[in-house]
Amino acid sequence: PVRLNLDLSTNMNNTNKRSPLLAKYKVGCDKNGKLVAIYIELYLDAGNQPMFEGELLAFIEGGYYSPNFTLKCRQVRTDKLFAGTVRAPGQVPSCLVIETVLEHLTKQAQQDPVMLREINLIEEGQHRLNGTPVKNCTMRKVWDRLKQTADVNTRQEDVDRFNKSNLWRKRGLSMTAVKYDMYYLPAGLPAHVSVFAADGTVTVITGGVEMGQGLYTKVRIDFISV
User: Fold this and answer.
1) Among the listed residues 60, 78, 79, the one whose alpha carbon sits nearest the alpha carbon of residue 69
2) Does residue 122 contact residue 137 with C-beta atoms inside 8 Å?
3) Residues sharing a CB contact under 8 Å with residue 47, sequence separation 6 or more, in sequence order
């Protein structure tokens, strides 16, 4: 048996990274900035074997809503090593695509970037790209609260004044929406609690991944408090 301990750089070269992605899109809005239609074609460099594209399809709409949304996803087979999923396999590239689309739209339509996103936030009762209705949606409530606590309007005015008075140095301010559904874990896997009668030992197994966020500590505290 052979055991290899690789440095991070070598490990990433061997396991590859996220798949390269090309997005071609068309987007339109009315005079108020309300989205009318979005059309996106995604081309994924799948490497030498097919890859799972479901995460891209689940997150491509971001935290926004368009009444007409068409998405076409194509995998391109190449002679490269197939891509690794990494963490949040589809959300990061999906957010990059939809935010690029909206940012491009704000410039072409001469709309305020924050306001255009705000009026297109997904609402309760609207439907996601896959056809499922949105339930228990707090997107606008969270958006309004963060906009107030972060004092976005005042800070944007400061940015505008700075940019007008400085020719070579510029500043910017951005506010974006992210929607992450809770259906990701399969049914039956959110948590498994075992209580052993012999000595009262309790084990808690969850479907989450501990990455320093204190997942198991929180589970233990919540269990004890009950």
Assistant:
1) 60
2) yes
3) 16, 19, 77, 78, 80, 81, 82, 83
Place of tokens 């339109």: 28
Q: Say if strands 191-195 and 202-206 run parallel, antiparallel, or are unpaired.
A: antiparallel
142: which residues sit within 8 A by CB, 6+ positions away?
A: none
Residues 171-214 have pLDDT tens digits of 999 999 988 766 555 555 567 788 888 888 888 877 777 777 77
Partners of 69 in the β-ladder: 38
Measured distance CA(1)–CA(3) in Å, rounded: 7
**Residue, of 190 and 68, whose pLDDT is higher:** 68
Close Cβ partners of 112 (under 8 Å, ≥ 6 residues apart) = 33, 106
**Token pair recorded at residue 209:** 């991944």
